[in-house]
Amino acid sequence: MLKEVVPGITRFAVFWNPNNLSSRMSWEDARDTAPVVGLTPVSIEIRGPGDLDAALAKLAAEKPDAAFIHLAVMAFRAPILAFAIERRIPVMAPSRTFADPGVLLTYGASTAEGFRRAAGYIDKVLKGAKPADLPVEQPTKFELVINLRTAKALGLAIPPTLLARVDEVIE
Fold it and tell me: Where in the sequence is the domain holding 27, given as residue range(s)?
């Protein structure tokens, strides 16, 4: 989706936490699959608050065309967004939950749908089902949110083909 919104993108920064398994797997996926679509990912690790200044310095030095913030580092999204917007770097995040003003687009599993499905699991457990006997389910509903204010501020036009797929537009 970033390739649709950011013409000519070749490099994107990935803010991730190597101490978090999900975050590490996400980084490894980005590192391994980005070259297939002609992109180069730039690793920016944040383990905790002490890493933020170095992470922002690396973002400034690397000058990527865009950035992605993994859920494991969302606690740092406000300073990352402020820093990125100053440098006109569009930012993507994986969840509607974190669609702050400033995130250009979010795409990920629906948090609300996940909670509804979790309620079904709780109901089964309360009715006597053993948690170990319940199947693991994958998300089935994903949400795409685009922030048109951010797009306008960055001088980016959102293609109509992408707007047609959007679940929510922030204006």
Answer: 2-109+141-170
